[in-house]
Amino acid sequence: QVQLVESGGGLVQAGGSLRLSCTVSGRTSGIYRMGWFRQTPGKEREFVAHIIWSGSSTYYVDSVKGRFTISRDNAKNTVYLQMTSLKPEDTAVYYCNLRRLGNDYWGQGTQVTVSS
Fold first, then answer.
1. What is the mean pLDDT of residues 9-19?
2. Cα–Cα nearest to 69, from 77, 85, 54, 80
3. pLDDT for 38-91, tens place per residue?
């Protein structure tokens, strides 16, 4: 069993910054990648970024490149999403995602609201 616990969402003005955290507990061996998706009402969940657990390769959706940075602390089983220069269109529920042994796991989601 794998559990993901997210934190760090909130309300911020446009141009501000937030850092999201996602900590994994349970069976952590065999993790392939961890990352973040986001979703707004009426839209499909959108990929934001992910990081390969055993290396340092990172991938981002074009709309956040240069503004968001994903990183991980293997010792703490935690992945972070540092978000800077936030825009109102970044407003969404952000979900932590983990892929392990071919299965996807999700956190409960954390709300990020960017006011203009």
1. 98
2. 80
3. 999 999 999 999 999 887 799 999 999 999 999 999 889 999 999 999 999 999
C-alpha span between 98 and 78 (Å, rounded): 11
At residue 18, the 3 state secondary structure works out as strand
DSSP string, 27-39: --TTEEEEEEEEE
CA distances from 6 to 21, 66, 74, 81, 91 (A): 5, 23, 16, 11, 16
Six-digit token pair at 51?
A: 């990081």
The CA radius of gyration of the chain, in Å to the nearest whole number, is 13
Helices (H) and strands (E) counted in the chain, each on its own, are 0, 11
Q: Compute how many other C-beta atoms are within 10 angstroms of the C-beta atom of residue 64.
A: 22
The token pair that represents 95 in the structure block: 């979900």
Q: Which two tokens stand for residue 49?
A: 């970024």
Given the structure tokens 């970044």, which residue do they identify? Answer: 90
Tokens of 66: 């240069």
